[in-house]
Amino acid sequence: MTQLDVLYRYGVQPSERAVLALSKVRDVYGVRRMEFDEAAKTVRVEYDASRLNGSVIHQLLRRAGLDIVETVSTIPKPEDTAPPTPVQPSVA
Prior knowledge:
Layout: E1 3-10, H1 16-25, E2 31-37, E3 42-48, H2 54-64, E4 68-72
Antiparallel strand pairs: 1-3, 1-4, 2-3
Helix pairs in contact: 1-2
């Protein structure tokens, strides 16, 4: 089993109907976990890559009624990471 995460940003808050449909997405064999961050308007889906792929996850969420705006990279950009602190030479 190969577990992968995909992170999507959504536009409008899901309706009650969409939330009920999204709860059924969790029942799909291969979907391991769904986490919503309402403040950032993102949803992270952990899935089994030997059973599903990213496009299937995207379609499941769209068909459930989630307004997906973009796929967010989970890999930090080099400019987002702090540069390493230089090591001071020790005098012995």
